[in-house]
Amino acid sequence: MNRMAASFVHLHLHSEYSLSDSTIQVKPLVSAVAAAAMPAVAVTDQCNLFAMVKFYRAALAAGIKPIIGVDLQLQSSHDRETAALVLLCQNQQGYLNLTHLISRAYIEGQHQGKPVVCADWLQQHSEGLIALSGGRVGDVGQALLAGKDDLARRHLETWMHLFPDRFYLEIQRTGRP
Predict the structure, then answer these.
(1) Is 119:83 a contact under the CB 8 Å cutoff?
(2) From the first residue on, what is the mean pLDDT of each consecutive set of 10 residues in the chain (177 residues)?
(3) What is the largest distance, in Å, between two alpha-carbon atoms of the chain?
(4) Rounded Cα gap, residues 53 and 58, in angstroms
(5) Per-domain residue ranges for the chain?
(6) What gap in Å lies between CA 130 and CA 99, rounded to an integer?
């Protein structure tokens, strides 16, 4: 089976460990990815890495590259609204930075009972991380949907500076305009 021929890899996928959002169990997920001949898959649960060990072991056993990440709620220092940002580990430093951000979100960033990452924290902890824009619920997507193209461009420039050659606009096919 030629795994390099696969044209799609899930990079933003919640498991059963994102309790309010998904019921996808790790082993059936890995089986489905293998059956679809995908070379890799990311699990990006909501501000947690609870599935990581189980997912990592199952993916490796199936010959799938496991990509570790999280779906974060992000809050800027000048705005009370939150936006989504997906972070994927590129390497060991990225994993260490991601665990720091998640821990800090639970310790210092609670907002209405949910862990939130302050955007300023990323200044010190973006190395080794790949960022996805969060689609329509990320700050770039929210600005575009509101018709604020200049704001979307400013957000995009900020992310591209913070994650040089490691920031990607997320496209989600949802059947919505």
Answers:
(1) no
(2) 60 70 77 91 89 92 95 84 94 97 93 90 97 94 95 96 95 73
(3) 51
(4) 9
(5) 3-168
(6) 14
Whole-number pLDDT of residue 3? 47
Confidence (pTM): 0.89
Which residues, at least 6 apart from 27, have a Cβ–Cβ distance to it below 8 Å? Answer: 58
Torsions phi, psi for 113 (to 5 deg)? 80, 5
Cα-trace Rg, the chain: 16
Q: Comparing C-alpha atoms, which of 155, 75, 177, 165 is closest to residue 120?
A: 75
| 158 CB burial (10 A radius; 0-12, 13-18, 19+) | middle
CA dihedral 63, 127, 118, 152 (to 10 degrees): -90
Cβ-Cβ contacts under 8 Å for 136 (sequence gap 6 or more) = 142, 145, 172, 176
- ∠166-75-93 over CA atoms, to 5°? 40
Q: Which fold has domain 3-168?
A: TIM Barrel (3.20.20)
pLDDT score for 20 = 65
Query: What confidence score (pLDDT) does residue 19 get?
Result: 61
The neighbouring-strand residues paired with 84 are: 73, 138
| Burial of 6 (C-beta count, 10 Å sphere; 0-12/13-18/19+) | middle
